[in-house]
Amino acid sequence: MHIQSLSLLATGLLAGGLGAQTASGVSAVGPKTGFPAGPSLDRQLDLAGIPTDGFPHFTCVDAFQEGDTIRIGIDTGRNPGLAGRPIDIYVLAHRTPAQWQADPHLVDLVGGPREIRPVPKSLARNVIAVDTGRLAGFDGSASIGTGYDIVLDTNRNGVLDRADRIDGWGSEPGFVVFGDLTQPGPYTPKERKYNGGTFKRQEIFFPSEIATLGELPLIVVSHGNGHNYTWYSHIGNHMASWGYIVMSHQNNTGPGIKAASTTTLTNTEEFLGNLDKIAGGQLQGHVDTHSIVWMGHSRGGEGVVRAYKRLVGGDPIATLYSAADIRLVSSMAPTDFLGPGQSEPLGVPYHLWTGAADNDVNGCADSNAAQPFHLFGRARGERMSISIYGAGHGDFHNGGGSSVAAGPCKIGRSKTHRILRGHLLPLVDSVLHGNSAAREYLWRQWERFRPLGAPVGPCIVVDLMYQEDPADGKLVLDDFQTNAPRTLSSSGGQVVGNVDFWRERRLDDRDRAFTTNTDPMNGMTMAGPNDTSSGITLGWPGGDTRYLLFEVPDGYRDLSDFATLSLRAAQASRHPLTAAELGDLDFTVELYDLFGHRSAIRIGAYGGGIEEPYQRAGCGKGRGWASDWETIRIPLEDFRADGRRMEMRAIVAVGLRFGPRFGSDLGRIGIDDIEFTKDGPR
């Protein structure tokens, strides 16, 4: 598609053409494609999922929690061979292909099997509850969830054979039920102290049953300035109860980040080199030295990032471990004193925790050292973040005293810790053990899916960002890092639109305050002066519609191997278009194929939207703290729900639609990282 064709498409949008498509369906204009309408039926079929608010009516997910109703969705528009015939549904304990080969008999766990007759040409009318919350999440082991499969026994013979369909064929289950991840696991945590000398004091947590558990991953915790290494037992006890070893160490933060990074390196070396002495030798032979997580708080949060950069550069302190052994780096309310070139997570999986009420590393535009999202912006591998409104700097430790918090709706230490415990466990499990179902805790809308035991209420607001590792093969449509003209995407495609205030720049509030002004990046703190993280801002007034259309260039249009359309967005802090309608902001995402077909989904269909900024005063005039980013992920198969015609091997454009009929009536937002990823829900 050339710019002339894209302009014609844009003209059709303005005229309301293209089959008079609205934001909740899909047009069917254009010639027949000559391609098949969809994939041929095979044994594997995604079934488990949740209803959505409007089109696509239902979306497949892997993660559920104890007490959840388990539903399946059968799209007979795409699978017409399943329509109108009697089918028995079985819910079973997960089996591997080898186990199915050994025993193909179907044994239902929820009082079935249940007979159904799917309605033709529909997904919405074929959403069926198969369990009302009776399935267990914990099985008594250290597994944080229990896997299940779903079988459609189409020939009703009580065995799995080639005629049937299964959600769960393979090494991973069809779906996983999790219990309350904020609660202790099956093991009894034990705590021991160790003193290896100056800045080598350590507090170690491990399961009392460690003698029978083999090698366990190690989590190292590096505290912040003025903090103490004994203030992280809420992490140590919780993770030890789930089969991890946690070592929290004395940290030399006073001189600065270089010194803090040195103590992270030396304490990791000290611990691994003295396992015969620590805790009376109980840990000897039980530490998986190739599965290490570094966590840090405040200066320690920047220190672990700097330590990893040093490790990659071959720092001689480390002789018993290497950069490849550090599987995850996680920073709680980190500083950014050293800046780009020194404090960079590089390609290691990186996770960021922030508190919007933090009154120390506070995120205000007047101090680059106090803007923690800079570290996220520099991460080059898998990167994740959780932003907790109302949480203060001191709420991430358990040393007592002040929360060091400012702003409305402060939630305190206890509630922050419940969120932390419920989020940390699936975070570590997903990275270290590849648990794709656990990964859903890192990106699904908090309003719809959050850990059991996490606090709820009007003051509990959590924003999540998740981006797949580029090495996993994602396709970036526009990350706004190259091709400076706003009308040319980083992938080389044309961009057209009629949105207001459309600017492409570095995501850096440059004037040291959040007061509304002419800076298009006001409130944006993803980058500092020497960073490169860029994006766009745009807006739309009330009562009118706007669009932004991204061409998918030749060579990028076959999306048949991709699972998800992902983008990041944030409401612009203190802008009049934001302040006029505080609340979750909604807009529509559209796909267009080469043959004139179009499918549209509102981001609010998945249970949330883009959260309004935390309504904190200070850092200039007005209310609304730094713009808080969220990731929106839409399964590509959802665009083909109900048998909608959409040729995924010939996608030519992605559209963003704003205003009445498409979401929120008015708004001002930032957009970044529009990409197609391969991980998806499966």
As a percent range, the share of helical residues equals 10-25%
CATH topology of the largest domain: Rossmann fold
* Radius of gyration using CA atoms only: 25 Å
- Would you count the extended β strands for me? 31
What does this structure look like?
With 682 residues, the protein is an alpha+beta fold. Helix content is 14%, strand content 27%. The chain folds into three domains: 3-31 and 474-677, Galactose-binding lectin (Jelly Rolls), CATH 2.60.120; 48-178, no CATH class; 189-467, Rossmann fold (3-Layer(aba) Sandwich). It has nine helices and 31 strands. A nine-stranded mixed sheet has the order 12-13-15-14-16-17-18-19-20, sandwiched between helices. The model is unreliable at 16-41 (pLDDT under 50).
Supply the key terms:
Jelly Rolls, 9 helices, globular, alpha+beta, six-stranded antiparallel sheet, Rossmann fold, 682 residues
Indicate the topology:
Blueprint: H1 3-14, E1 26-28, E2 48-51, E3 58-60, E4 63-65, E5 70-73, E6 87-93, H2 97-102, E7 114-116, E8 127-131, E9 145-153, E10 165-167, E11 175-178, E12 189-195, E13 201-207, E14 216-222, H3 233-241, E15 245-249, H4 257-273, E16 287-297, H5 299-312, E17 326-332, E18 350-355, H6 373-378, E19 383-388, H7 412-433, H8 436-439, E20 462-467, E21 475-478, E22 495-497, E23 500-506, E24 534-540, E25 546-551, E26 564-571, H9 576-579, E27 588-593, E28 597-602, E29 630-635, E30 651-658, E31 667-677
Parallel strand pairs: 4-11, 14-15, 14-16, 16-17, 17-18, 18-19
Antiparallel strand pairs: 1-28, 2-3, 2-5, 5-8, 6-7, 6-9, 9-10, 9-11, 12-13, 13-15, 19-20, 21-31, 22-25, 23-24, 24-31, 25-30, 26-29, 26-31, 27-28, 27-30
Helix pairs in contact: 3-7, 4-5
